[in-house]
Specification:
19 helices, 45% helix, 17% strand, 16 strands
Length: 559
């Protein structure tokens, strides 16, 4: 399913009727639908808003019967945005103090990071009241304590882009502050929920004739009580907050150490058989599981996602479905890779073809094919057993110890490996030559490139996967369209104690029309993500992406 980025404007309004016409005029150039929430305003404001809504077809007016507070108005506006099908809402204050011209910058960042809260980071001029300015720093310090992080740079700016679904999910689960305590509390609790915030510097001006609804006594008491709640809410979350780290690129994750340990495990297998290897694997994996905190967190997140999806579809959970056995499956998969290249895995006994897989592969066809694979299961076994030459593109050099063990025990495993950091014209020409010679090419479609583009942007397509949008690389699919050859999807999953090879046609050839290339690319990636999800749900312990698959790497503040 395609993830449609559909933003709107959200303006909570309380007695700012005289300013709203000017605010809407400044917003008109963006041609975005606008939701105004009248928070129990006086009669003059009600009349002004009625007139504006009548004159502007892109304006939706929602009215609260009495003043409920800014937070309540924002939540009501987000509910209306969700009902209308919007994915994100740009909150703009009704008094016109925000630099509305920065909306495109906020939206661009929101589209890249659809599950995050994008906020302005105020750059004040001399119009800012000093008491407000100093008070903000007090809140900043409290927020850093409540999150055990310096990542939330400013929690009080009302110029922000809310991801509608995660914010409403939070609001339905936790009672949030309804007035001036809302902005900070929702940002902190979204951070706790796993939806972090990115910041864009933006100019903020306090109009000379501005109308402030800040009640020095009542709102300061509310904010103090909010920080008290958040502080005590932080205490039981200390372990999880301390374990949060910047998302790291999969190619830069440190490889598990222990070259001699791997050699020992392989020696045990070759000397005493798989039973002895499996017995020794338990304590080895236990140590790795206890010490590898980042992969363990990623594994548990994966388990939780799969459980939710299986429950939604009324499907049963696999036996022993937990993070530790996820790691154990990875350990056995490593042995299967080596065993397949050494000829230890036998067709029929250890490897079987799922219905239709052999027909889809059609090994007898003289034409070269592209195999679109993933890090679900053990496609390396297919490459080892194939009677055809399969050239595999590998995008990283981080698994040097494992590669060394592979080459020591199965030297032929390194044959026909093409190591690249990016797919360029030279790579495409080389692969085209191999395909023309009748050789096959294998490439994974679930790992983004090692390096971003110049400027730091990642060439990805966001697609729905396991209930949330995830970034998939553009490169493999563009390459497939350039090579103009049959494209197959292939998986080798450990099911009922055997490797089951699944293969199905994907495209012949893959076409991305120039005039509709972006939409065609989106549709192609969506289809890949759907099939990947299908097979992942059928064998979830074969998922070997031990990192946060749903976040781009090095997700830091964009300024």
């Amino acid at each position: 399913m395609s993830i449609t980025f559909a933003p709107c404007i959200l303006i909570p309004c309380y007695n700012h009727g005289a300013m709203m016409a000017g605010v809407l005029a400044r917003l008109s150039g963006f041609q975005l639908p606008c939701i105004i929430v009248d928070d129990g305003s006086d009669s003059a404001t009600r009349e002004a808003l009625d007139a504006l809504a009548a004159d502007n077809e892109h304006v939706t007016l929602v009215r609260l019967p009495e003043n409920a507070g800014k937070g309540a108005a924002v939540i009501r506006g987000l509910e209306e945005a969700q009902r209308a099908g919007f994915s994100h809402a740009v909150q703009v204050d009704a008094d016109g103090q925000h630099a509305i011209e920065d909306i495109p910058r906020l939206l661009a960042l929101a589209e890249k990071h659809p599950d995050t809260l994008i906020s302005g980071r105020p750059v004040y001029d001399d119009s800012v009241p000093r008491s407000r300015l100093y008070g903000r720093y007090v809140t900043h310090v409290w927020v850093w304590i409540e999150t055990l992080s310096l990542q939330l740079k400013d929690s009080m700016c009302g110029f922000r882009v809310y991801p509608v679904e995660p914010t409403l999910k939070l609001a339905r689960r936790v009672p949030l502050g309804k007035r001036m305590d809302f902005d900070t509390e929702v940002m902190v609790r979204l951070y706790w929920q796993g939806n972090t915030s990115y910041f864009v510097p933006t100019r903020v001006t306090y109009p000379e004739d501005g109308l402030s609804h800040f009640d020095a006594l009542k709102d300061n008491l509310r904010i103090s009580w909010m920080h008290t709640r958040l502080f005590f809410g932080m205490l039981p979350r200390i372990p999880s907050l301390l374990m949060r780290r910047r998302t790291q690129h999969w190619a830069k994750q440190p490889e598990a150490k222990g070259l001699w340990g791997m050699r020992l495990m392989i020696w045990v297998w070759k000397t005493f058989g798989r039973g002895a290897f499996s017995l020794l694997l338990w304590p080895v994996i236990a140590v790795f599981w206890l010490t590898a905190s980042a992969p363990r967190r990623a594994s548990q997140q994966w388990i939780d996602r799969v459980k939710r999806e299986l429950a939604t579809r009324n499907l049963p959970q696999p036996a022993r479905f937990n993070s530790f056995h996820h790691f154990m499956g990875f350990g056995h998969a490593i042995l299967d890779k080596i065993a397949s290249w050494r000829g230890e895995l036998k067709p029929g006994r250890d490897i079987v073809f799922a219905p239709g897989a052999q027909d889809a592969l059609d090994m007898s066809a003289p034409k070269g094919k592209l195999l679109l694979a993933s890090h679900l299961g053990d496609v390396e076994a297919c490459r080892a057993l194939s009677t055809r030459t399969i050239n595999a593109l590998v995008f990283n050099e981080n698994a040097q110890r494992f590669k060394q063990v592979m080459e020591e025990n199965a030297p032929q495993s390194g044959i026909n490996l093409i190591s690249v950091t990016d797919v360029g014209p030279d790579t495409a020409m080389l692969l085209k030559e191999k395909l023309d010679q009748g050789e096959w090419v294998a490439i994974v479609g679930d790992r983004i490139a090692v390096n971003p583009q110049r400027g730091g942007d990642w060439r990805v397509i966001w697609s729905e996967f396991m209930g949330s949008p995830a970034p998939f690389p553009q490169g493999p699919f563009i390459l497939a369209s350039v090579l103009k050859c049959p494209v197959l999807m292939i998986f080798a999953l450990k099911q009922q104690g055997k490797l089951h090879v699944h293969c199905e046609p994907f495209a012949d050839p893959l076409v991305l029309p120039r005039g509709e290339r972006q939409q065609a690319l989106q549709n192609t990636v969506d289809r890949y993500a759907q099939r990947l999800e299908h097979y992942a749900l059928s064998s979830p312990l074969d998922w070997f992406n031990f990192f946060d698959f749903w976040q781009l790497p090095d997700a830091t503040e964009k300024e």
